[in-house]
Amino acid sequence: SQLQDLTGLRSGKLVVEKFSHIKNECSYWLCRCDCGNGHVVRGDGILKGLTKSCGCSRNDKNINSSAGNKKSMGKVFQTWSGMINRCCNKSNPAYKYYGGRGIEVCNKWRLSFDKFCEDMGIPYDGYSIDRIDVNGNYCPENCRWASTQEQNRNKRNNVNIIIFNTTMCAAAWGDISKVTGSTILGRLGRGWDNVAAVFTPSSSKRGTGYQVVENKIINLDGVAVWNY
Fold it and tell me: Are 102 and 137 in contact (CB under 8 A)?
């Protein structure tokens, strides 16, 4: 069936910018969040309004139902105090990675725990504070609650791979191509170009190869798995 064009549709804070890829017969779309972050979302999540932000939203209905209880607020307070400590306390072992690199906490947050709570809300269980720009400061426009996987993919030492003006780490590209991040990095180390490193199937799956046609990468069934 013909792919429905979702370009320009809005769901909460997300606006669809372009088609991303097909995975398990579902379409995925690159969206731009009002906070400025890019986020790949499944098409039905946009159409049904199930996905409303990149994860930065402080007011989603899905925000942790334990919001406001002492245990949750205690975790948020630890996050707030730890953030300030590693940016401002030169005796903190982590200071060299934060304050020592020029990372600061905005005045509003540094001076008021209540203001930090107003901006950030309460995270899902297992989520922690993450700076969207890892070289940027702790401030409302640059922070979100993120899962461990999201944080691991946003580290300074990640190798970012650019294909058709889209930049992602090896693990994120691997989610699309079904090639492991370690395999992709190994190929790059041996001099492979970015497209070949990401989209060449493993030796056991050569029959599911890809071709580059103009600004599209298509599989042998003619379905675009990535385009620009």
Answer: no
